[in-house]
């Protein structure tokens, strides 16, 4: 028999990404970041912005876990969040009730939170859009959750198939949300610059009429050809 956990557990004292490091990643496309991390790092494709026109952000991860059909973990994260944080609120992918609504989104905006990301649902889309803060979720449901706990803030979570630790760098745009592990950030940044440089050359080539990339030649040249 397990003991019932506290209604809310908060872990404090973790290191957030330095401002200079965050600024170095600012403006990066999520697809380029994934290329710089061996094709991985993005949360599940179903997690999308409530407003694609308000989806670009960067910040330090504040992970939280809200049990299904409950918001205590979300409320704890709202209380603990600092300006520039990205709340990564795992909800076990629960789709029976929402884990956040427009009023909480407005409070997070007032605190200067950079974004809120959940693998659960949100409610009150119009109010969330009006709040003007990037908010990503699997979808919308007006069903209301309980506030009975338990909830956890400041401990690692898995959200949308991606492991998130406190202080990791989180980048979002209209396509997705990508998590860059803080301890790998410098190496990822170096690879990101190479990816961006190669992408810029490719864009120029395509705009100039290119219909082929020499990088594909080894695959195409080694193809097994079967004549009809």
Please characterize this protein's 3D structure.
By secondary structure, this protein is of the alpha/beta class. The protein has one domain: Glucose Oxidase, domain 1. The chain has helices spanning 19-25, 30-35, 72-80, 102-110, 125-131, 185-207, 217-221, and strands at 8-10, 48-49, 57-66, 85-90, 98-100, 115-118, 121-122, 135-137, 139-140, 151-153, 157-159, 162-164, 169-172, 177-180. The strands form three sheets. Strands 1, 2, 3, 4, 6, 8, 10, 13 and 14 form a nine-stranded mixed beta sheet that branches. Strands 5-7-9 form a three-stranded parallel beta sheet. The protein has a two-stranded antiparallel sheet with strand order 11-12. It is elongated.
In a nutshell, what does this entry contain?
By secondary structure, the chain is of the alpha/beta class. It has helices at residues 19-25, 30-35, 72-80, 102-110, 125-131, 185-207, 217-221; strands spanning 8-10, 48-49, 57-66, 85-90, 98-100, 115-118, 121-122, 135-137, 139-140, 151-153, 157-159, 162-164, 169-172, 177-180. The protein has a single domain (8-196), classed as Ribonuclease E inhibitor RraA/RraA-like (Glucose Oxidase, domain 1).
């Amino acid at each position: 028999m397990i003991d019932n956990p506290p209604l809310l557990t908060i872990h404090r004292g973790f290191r957030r990404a330095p401002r200079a490091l965050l600024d170095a990643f600012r403006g990066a496309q999520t697809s380029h970041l994934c290329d710089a991390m061996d094709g991985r790092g993005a949360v599940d494709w179903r997690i999308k912005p409530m407003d694609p026109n308000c989806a670009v952000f960067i910040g330090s991860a504040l992970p939280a876990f809200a049990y299904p059909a409950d918001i205590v973990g979300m409320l704890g994260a709202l209380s603990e969040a600092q300006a520039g944080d990205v709340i990564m609120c795992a909800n076990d992918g629960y789709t029976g009730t929402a884990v956040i609504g427009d009023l909480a989104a407005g409070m997070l905006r007032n605190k200067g939170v950079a974004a809120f990301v959940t693998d659960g649902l949100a409610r009150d889309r119009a109010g969330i859009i009006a709040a003007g803060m990037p908010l990503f979720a699997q979808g919308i449901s007006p069903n209301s959750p309980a506030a009975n706990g338990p909830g956890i803030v400041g401990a690692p979570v898995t959200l949308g198939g991606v492991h998130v630790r406190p202080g990791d760098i989180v980048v979002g745009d209209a396509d997705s949300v990508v998590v860059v592990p803080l301890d790998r950030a410098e190496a990822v940044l170096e690879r990101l610059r190479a990816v961006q440089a190669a992408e810029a050359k490719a864009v120029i080539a395509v705009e100039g009429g290119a219909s082929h990339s020499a990088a594909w030649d080894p695959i195409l040249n080694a193809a097994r050809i079967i004549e009809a």
